[in-house]
Design goal:
It contains three helices and no strands. The chain is mainly α and 76 residues long. The chain has one domain. The protein is rod-shaped.
């Protein structure tokens, strides 16, 4: 792979890392909101939806991390 394509991959990886960080911030805020709910609401439908959102945000972050790993490997 030439230098130009490596540079492009590095830029993409940096963008993905920034997106991952933004998702992590949202996930942390959602987790904090969930943690501050009364136990009855945590165990109800609203709590279930919040937990599902948190799980989905975790999955999105994992997928972005995996994409970054693949991009790094592609440069070798």
């Amino acid at each position: 792979m030439n230098k130009s394509r490596r540079k492009t991959i590095n830029e993409i990886t940096e963008q993905l890392e920034e997106i991952k960080s933004s998702i992590e911030t949202v996930r942390d805020e959602e987790q904090e909101s969930f943690d501050n709910l009364p136990e009855g609401i945590q165990n109800g439908e609203s709590g279930d939806k919040m937990n599902e959102a948190i799980d989905n945000l975790d999955s999105a972050m994992s997928s972005l991390e995996e994409a970054c790993d693949y991009l790094t490997e592609a440069q070798n």
